[in-house]
């Protein structure tokens, strides 16, 4: 029976070991890219050595022995007794994938075990100087059989299942002392202001000016505390970028393409829940950039380009949003080819008169692919629609820009956090709702003379020089007739959705405020368009609406 102290030691080891394995993978990728020095080799060796020793100390003998064999291989590599080759790099990366899987298993079941035989055979084969990968016996280094439950696959040279690299989401986060100290300093200021208010209660009438001043200071301080608390949830992008390096390496080897991956902004910080959610989409996007975007070395030379194609991933914080760009200097997207394929698939028609940006957006449709042949990497028509859904679920957007023969860029626009945001408090049929400011382009007043009713499902409204589809939220929420003090006037929110603009009518705009997101209860998830809830200053609960969901339903009903 494991004591509390033993469990604490095991949990501490498992948390540190996961970080060590991720760092080790980064070292291997540096070596594979030819950017290694003695410190890189020493760092990789120390990681294997630390895992070996710490695993033995907490009783994970099998894990310790596996790490020991990896350490033996690294000793020979570090001393140049064995030359680092692509095969050696593949072996080390698969071994570190297996370490991650093993650690994840041990988190679930400390008594679990894992079959490492195929990996050990490959290590022995390399250390013995054999040119070909070990193939005797059952299993191979591309598969990992883990006991105590279901089988868990490991990473391989194929990016078809690259999500395996990010499947073990950690529910812990490391926080630097400075972030904690900043938060404690502000909490200390809050206590001082609270004491001031407590003292003012003794003579409230004579202290009204002091009370009002202190309340104002408390409001500013609460905002600062909120910002510091949100920073506790943020992490830098180093681990995410390391996974992108791995994805590009595997994709380039599988497609026999030369790729120079440029990563900018790895020290930028973003909410961990958002980083976890965008990891798989970004891995898919850089894989696509290699497979779809970049040409083969021969094709690039024929086009007077460098045979080594460049992919840039750039992350930066701009104001209230976080932007991530994935840019390839490849052949670019061909609108004519995309349109032809979309017509063949039935996604559009010849007389649709789509603009170029609308044609490019077709690649986000489920089942769309321009690849003629199915491979391990692509051609099945799955992927980009999932990418877009993942980004939209984070209340983000994905924009495409492409120039034929020059390359393609995808720009992800993401919120800094999902926990707190700015929103508009609106009234619809007497009830209060929240529309996030990130969904809104314009807020305008209107009267009924600007509205043209086409049929029961469709209405249009003219706003300045634009004619937009109009969606009445009271109807979509099944709330009955509008409650507007002046029956000829209401409020319109203009929201950009899927490259188009839609107008949403509400009865009244109450105010703008900071909104604390709360997940919906099971009973409230049936409300169309509701994605969360919050508590207003008067204690009332207000649902948070996502206008995009109303548009999807609107289109399904045959409108717009």
How are the secondary structure elements laid out?
Layout: H1 4-32, H2 38-57, H3 61-78, H4 86-108, H5 117-127, H6 177-200, H7 208-231, E1 234-236, H8 238-255, E2 258-264, E3 269-271, H9 272-293, H10 297-302, E4 308-318, E5 321-328, H11 335-345, H12 356-360, H13 384-393, E6 397-403, E7 407-415, E8 420-428, E9 431-436, E10 442-447, E11 451-453, E12 459-463, E13 466-472, H14 473-476, E14 489-497, E15 500-506, E16 508-516, E17 530-535, E18 541-545, H15 547-556
Parallel strand pairs: 2-4, 9-18, 13-15
Antiparallel strand pairs: 1-3, 4-5, 5-7, 6-7, 8-9, 8-16, 10-14, 11-12, 12-13, 14-15, 17-18
Keywords:
560 residues, 18 strands, five-stranded mixed β-sheet, six-stranded mixed β-sheet, alpha+beta
Computed structural class: alpha+beta
**Biggest sheet record:** 6 strands, mixed
State the distance separating the first and last CA atoms. 64 Å
Using the CA coordinates, give the radius of gyration: 28 Å
Q: Let me know the average pLDDT.
A: 84
Taken from the alpha-carbon principal axes, the silhouette is: globular
Helix content: 40-55%
**Count of runs of 4 or more consecutive helical residues:** 15
Approximately how much beta-strand content do the residues carry?
15-25%
């Amino acid at each position: 029976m494991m004591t509390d102290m033993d469990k604490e030691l095991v949990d501490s080891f498992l948390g540190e070991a996961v970080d060590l394995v991720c760092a080790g993978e980064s070292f291997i990728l540096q070596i594979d890219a030819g950017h290694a020095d003695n410190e890189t080799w020493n760092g990789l060796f120390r990681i294997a050595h630390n895992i070996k020793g710490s695993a033995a100390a907490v009783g994970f003998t099998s894990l310790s022995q596996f790490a020991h064999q990896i350490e033996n291989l690294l000793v020979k590599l570090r001393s140049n007794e064995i030359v680092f080759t692509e095969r050696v790099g593949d072996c080390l990366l698969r071994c570190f994938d297996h370490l991650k899987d093993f650690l994840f298993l041990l988190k679930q079941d400390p008594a679990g075990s894992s079959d490492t035989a195929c990996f050990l055979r490959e290590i022995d084969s390399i250390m013995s100087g054999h040119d070909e990968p070990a193939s005797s016996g059952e299993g191979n280094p591309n598969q990992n059989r883990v006991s105590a439950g279901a089988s868990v696959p490991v990473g391989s040279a194929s990016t078809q299942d690259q999500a395996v690299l990010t499947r073990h989401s950690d529910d812990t986060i490391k926080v630097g002392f400075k972030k904690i100290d900043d938060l404690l300093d502000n909490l200390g200021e809050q206590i001082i202001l609270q004491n001031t208010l407590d003292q003012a209660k003794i003579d409230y009438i004579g202290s009204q000016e002091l009370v009002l001043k202190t309340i104002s200071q408390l409001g500013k301080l609460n905002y600062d505390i909120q910002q510091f608390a949100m920073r506790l949830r943020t992490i830098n992008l180093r681990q995410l970028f390391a996974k992108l390096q791995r994805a590009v390496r595997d994709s380039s080897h599988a497609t026999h393409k030369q790729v120079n991956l440029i990563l900018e902004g790895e020290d930028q910080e973003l909410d961990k829940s958002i980083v976890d959610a965008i990891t798989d989409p970004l891995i898919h996007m850089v894989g696509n950039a290699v497979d779809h975007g970049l040409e083969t070395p021969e094709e690039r030379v024929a086009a007077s380009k460098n045979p080594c194609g460049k992919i840039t991933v750039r992350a930066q914080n701009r104001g209230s949003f976080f932007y991530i760009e994935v840019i390839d200097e490849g052949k670019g997207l061909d609108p004519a080819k995309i349109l032809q394929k979309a017509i063949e698939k039935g996604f559009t028609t010849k007389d649709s008169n789509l603009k170029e940006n609308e044609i490019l957006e077709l690649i986000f449709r489920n089942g769309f692919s321009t690849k003629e042949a199915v491979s391990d990497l692509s051609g099945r028509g799955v992927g980009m629609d999932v990418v877009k859904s993942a980004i939209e679920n984070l209340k983000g957007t994905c924009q495409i820009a492409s120039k034929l023969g020059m390359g393609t860029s995808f720009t992800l626009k993401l919120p800094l956090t999902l926990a707190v945001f700015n929103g508009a408090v609106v009234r619809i049929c007497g009830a209060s709702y929240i529309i996030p400011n990130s969904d809104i382009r314009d807020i305008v007043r209107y009267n009924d003379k600007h509205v043209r009713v086409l049929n029961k499902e469709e209405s249009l409204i003219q706003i300045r020089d634009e004619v937009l589809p109009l969606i009445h939220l009271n109807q979509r929420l099944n709330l009955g007739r509008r409650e507007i003090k002046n029956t000829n006037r209401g409020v319109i929110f203009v929201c950009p959705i899927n490259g188009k603009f839609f107008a949403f009518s509400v009865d009244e705009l109450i105010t703008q405020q900071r909104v604390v997101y709360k997940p919906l209860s099971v009973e409230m998830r049936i409300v169309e368009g509701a994605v969360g809830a919050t508590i207003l200053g008067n204690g009332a609960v207000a649902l948070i609406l996502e206008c995009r969901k109303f548009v999807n339903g609107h289109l399904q009903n045959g409108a717009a």
